């Protein structure tokens, strides 16, 4: 999957599609998911053009990586779920069912989330 600058997150970063940021830094933007799966469901995206978690891990600068992980903790604190717990999901590639070719994490919490994956 190659980076597509017309993806929805790129459009949000360029201000072409409005969002309601809950967190922003020089390297990170976070906003509520439009179809939340839990009381807290925030999308966290780097401002750089990274296709996936793999791409981000290989190409992002140390400052971008640090800012991204700092954002996770700050957002969890902001929403009051740092102590009770939360889940981070990054869908990567076809088998991971990645739909948007821009790296992003889903930070989900605010209730008990159950098992990670069903036992097939």
Describe this structure as you would to a colleague:
The two termini are 28 Å apart. This protein has three helices and five strands; from the N terminus they run H-E-E-E-H-H-E-E. The protein has 120 residues and is an alpha+beta fold. The radius of gyration is 14 Å and the shape is globular. It has a single domain (8-109), classed as HIT-like (HIT family, subunit A, 2-Layer Sandwich). The mean pLDDT is 95. Strands 1-2-3-5-4 form a five-stranded antiparallel beta sheet, covered by helices on one side. 25% of the residues lie in helices and 19% in strands.
Short description:
This protein has three helices and five strands. It is an alpha+beta fold and 120 residues long. The chain has a single domain (8-109), classed as HIT-like (HIT family, subunit A, 2-Layer Sandwich), CATH 3.30.428.10.
**CATH topology label:** HIT family, subunit A
Q: What is the residue-mean pLDDT, rounded to a whole number?
A: 95
Class based on secondary structure composition and strand pairing:
alpha+beta
Would you list the SSEs in sequence order as H and E? HEEEHHEE
Task: Give the overall form.
Answer: globular
Label the CATH architecture: 2-Layer Sandwich
Number of separate helices: 3
Strand content: 15-25%
pLDDT under 50 segments (min length 5)? none
CATH superfamily: HIT-like
Name the strands of the widest sheet in spatial order: 1-2-3-5-4
The amount of helix comes to 25-40%
CATH classification class: Alpha Beta
Count all strands and give the number.
5
Return the domain count. Answer: 1
Distance between the termini: 28 Å
Domain HIT: 8-120
InterPro entries: Histidine_triad_CS (IPR019808), Histidine_triad_HIT (IPR001310), HIT-like (IPR011146), HIT-like_sf (IPR036265)
Motif (Histidine triad motif): 102-106
Protein name: Histidine triad nucleotide-binding protein
């Amino acid at each position: 999957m190659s980076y597509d600058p017309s993806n929805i997150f790129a459009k949000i970063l360029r201000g072409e599609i409005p969002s309601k940021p809950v967190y922003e830094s020089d390297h990170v933007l976070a906003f509520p998911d439009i179809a939340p799966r839990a009381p807290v469901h925030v999308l966290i995206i780097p401002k750089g053009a990274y296709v996936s978690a793999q791409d981000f891990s290989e190409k992002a600068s140390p400052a971008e990586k640090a800012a991204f992980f700092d954002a996770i903790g700050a957002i969890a604190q902001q929403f009051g779920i740092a102590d009770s717990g939360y889940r981070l999901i990054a869908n990567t590639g076809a088998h991971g069912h990645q739909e948007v070719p821009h790296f992003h994490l889903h930070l989900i919490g605010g209730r008990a989330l159950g098992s990670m994956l069903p036992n097939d």
